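Model it.
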Amino acid sequence: DPGPAGLIFVHGLGVEIALWTVGMIIISGHAAPSWRMLVNGPFIAVVASLTLNYTGGHVLIPEVVKRAMAMLGDCAIPMSLFMIGATIGRLFERQFLGEMAKIGAVSIVVRLAIIPAVILAAAKFLPLPPELQKVLIVQAGMPAAVFPIVMARLYGGHPQTAIQVVLATTVASVITAPLVIALGMAWVGL
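Modeled.
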């Protein structure tokens, strides 16, 4: 029984696959995506990793390669934070703050009210095990993800909007996250 850790892992895989397929289509603005857009490096990495793990092929990978991959993986979060900080610093302009109120208000309502209501309803009314209900409740309370800032910058999206959404929902979630989680746990009956 993998418990909540296994559920969080599977949830993360689903998010990664959605991010690198559907997310890429949305960011690029293409109505009809090409197969090259859908089959990209991160998507291939997820599929290859799952295949190697499921088939036991991971034991065939030399230890030096595993260590190199682990070291690169350890660099991923610090490098992402560095890129996000650089992007925020470069795009933070005077007009940015003027637009912030409108974009921030809409993003707070959508990400911290509407989406949590839908997720909490799913946790309550779908026949789910308690561990998955808990994962959904915690995810319902979280602010907008930070990585789409980098994706928007690298793949032709609108990084200013992504930054505004992340900043607004992160600041607001200091108050809303504990409320959503506490109310969600009580409403779902956990």
